[in-house]
Amino acid sequence: MSIKYLVKEELIPDDGSKEIIENFYNQTEDKTLDLLVYPDVHYKKGSRVANGMLTASDNNIYPAMLGVANCGFTFGKIENVSIEKRDKLEQTFEEYSKKLKAYNNTKVYSNEEIFDIFYKYLDKFYNDEKYKELFNFLDINTLDNLKNSVKEIFNDKHIDVASKTLGTLGGGNHFFELQYVEDSYNSTYDNGDIIFILHSDSIAVGEKIMLLFSNLSELGHLGGIKGNIIKSLNKLRQLQYFTLKNGLFFKEPKEILNLLYSQDDFRTIDATTETGKTLIKAFFLSTIFGDMNRDMILTNYEKIAKEILGNINIHTLGSHSHDSLMVEKNNNQIKIVQRNGVQCVLNDQTFILPGALGTESYLMSNPNNEEAYHSSNHGVGRFLDKHVAKKEFNNENTEDELKKRNMKLFRVGSGNISEQNPNAFKNVFEVTETMKDENLGNRVAKLRPICSMKG
Question: Which end of the chain is more exposed for a tag (fewer CB within 10 A), N or C?
Fold first, then answer.
């Protein structure tokens, strides 16, 4: 059992996050636990864990560590165009934002179409080497075994929400950005190259799955009559799911009661039980929707970009989740690895480190650090949590700040932009210095934003 801070003391905000981390570590009785803390560590209102935490255990799953499955980044290069076409690049975002803005939560795909797309991705995921240990752990040895799990995990409401949201950006801190290489530190990239960064999640499917496997402590910040109604409705959905959908309540009542009703914020679920394996399976299958969604956004954008820019090509360099539950081999040991605001970069050569809205970002090389569980921070991290930033800044001064930084902002939703004010975040260069010192990544190219699309 160990705790390791891969971050300098000055980059840990005075927001209570360190106390949360230490409390988590001191409360657990798991002698096999590794707890790692990454440079983007910060407090998240209502959460029982801090952002930027990774847990690795021999057998235990920590429900408190569950996030929205496959919230992550897809990034890459737009080939055959450079910063010289900045005005036309901005025009592509203007046109695409109109289409996303017109979205009105109507059914775009039939449930059959969603399943057709999903099964194509399932085939690809099944043949991906990085899931080998997970499938072994779950005793899944054929693609048909995996396909049979789908109907056990998802109900019609999960597929309905996917049919209405596939290809949408979502809200919160999700974004789609174009950036250009300002400084390149190796021969792979040239100054002026155009890089895209897309941040979104599993189109609400992952959030619904997360809430099914939770004692809903993360909804503790919801007060009043409305908050109680939301929590009561979620409890009802959980009971229906575990009694009528998969019958786990009757097979392992003790595990389900512990999962849903324990008052212990740091309770664990044994990953070797049927409840534990169902939980792992549910989160794995939900991650696929994240990749489906980001790919659909890029496909739809590329059509518009080709009309305006001509013969361009979108070349994806990587896609990395930063909210996940995985089974992995590390130092020749099988571990249950959970990441909350931590990128799983595995053996990919490059990963993206987005800065705050309007600031520089970096392409980073992957040092393949096994001691860090092949992981890195998913961003620069906050000094001010969202609810604090909303009090400190407003939409108007945030948009003024972005104009000063010569970045165009395209809104496709009604979210509060003040929570993304760049002054609420850590300095990106200082974070990359810490990453270098802790062997989490090295700078490959410095990027500057051209335009950003936000919900």
Answer: N
